[in-house]
Amino acid sequence: MKKLSLLLVLCILIGCKDDKPKAIPVKKSQPAIILTDERTVQIDTAKINAFKSETLKQFYNSSDNKTVWGNLKKRTYILSLLKKSDELGLNPSDYKIEKLEKLEKRIGLLSDSDLVTYDILLTYNFELYLTHLYKGKLDPKKLYGNWDLAEKTFDINNALIKAFNKNKLDSIVDNFQSKADTYKQLLKALEIINTFPEDKIGTIESAEKITLHDTNPAVVNIKKRLLFWKDMSGRSDSLTKIYDQKTFEAIKKFQERHGLAADGVIGAGTISALNFSKAKRKEQIIANLERWRWYNNEFAKNYFIINIPDYSLNVVESKDTTLVRNVVVGTSKRRTPVITSKLKTVVFNPTWTVPPTILKEDVVPAMKRNRNYLAKKNITIYDSSGNVVEPSAWNEKNPGKYRYVQSPGYNNSLGLMKILFPNHHSVYLHDTNHRNYFERSNRSLSSGCVRIENPLELAQHILDSSDQSVSWSKEKIDSIIETKKTVNIKIRKKYALYQWYWTAWSKKNQLIFRADIYNLDSDLYAKLRN
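That's the Peptidoglycan-binding protein sequence above. Prediction below.
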């Protein structure tokens, strides 16, 4: 009987167990939220679950599912951040700021249920805001097939709860943003462009180039644009059609800010840049801010950074820019990919194997016209067994079964050197046999790889830095080049490679823009505001 009685008691206890859903365990690294004496309300977890956010569940689990934003100062600070998020290129409506402000105005009259709703909305939208600041609103991998950027992850709750408990919410926004100078220059650019009035200048139309002392009706609106952007000083009520010396100097200043040849000649590229309105330039800045949030927050100690639309490469070592080089990048049809990687190997006297795209679009059509096309370019055809195939025996109906290899030399398509780094696009940095391309202002001319001006000097610099036990003098490198034999040299010093894309920034309080060579800016802005 005693055993039976004990069994009945146990059954009753088990039957009376609380049926409430189990709380999600707090991550070990996540601190508990310290609540003060302000009004707190217990939250029905169904309201949290409605947001379908694990982060939100974890946050409120740290407060034992109680409201946390009872402190007026904390609420006011968050609301002010969300309201002025446009100053950082974000969209206040993404964070339901109007709805939150309406709830705040009625805070003393809110029922427990409405207070819970307000509290959850405040947390959800503030965390969304911080997420957008840290890694952007959109996912580049879903937008672009040739962008290989590692996903940025962070423990948002851990950072938020620590700032909440220490009353240091004011520091969290700075901590979540990029520390890169370019990002800061973009924020400054947004601040600068907001100081300009709305422009109502007509579209500039000119079918011909305009040179110094020409008379052209388009010059009137050109002068208005130069005055608007402060490249020229003066009054707008007495402008003539004459392209005078003052306007000539202003045009050169404008061209330099836009990465154009600063020759004072007003051609199609300059007209196109002049026709950008304030609104379009602001959209461009906002699109660039989003892109910079996709990139690394922390840079390696030593790195190469390539800005694709600026056609430039900077070598940075211990925060000091040690080399700057002009580069040639891919065309709009054969785009240079956006990637982060690590430099591995310098190859002197490289061979070049014709890639499938160039084979299909360039080589095969040329071979059909002239069987000696490849021989003239010092390219040998090999079959699958490695045997040399004479051009006369080449099967034009099945060109993909062959391998096409260009011998090393000054006129090799890769030039005298290439630098290898891991990537999924079969691209690398290299010299070129079209060395005159670097004289052009528009250098979107390659098949996807990045071509470097004066590459042997660059190779000498990084190899000297890599291995102090070997002297990589110009004479030593020249002697390797003279052999015309392929030589691979491991880069011992650690260099990261950042091959990125940005078309706007500021410098010395001046707005700087570059042509959007891959037409990414307008589409990205539209998606951000969708």
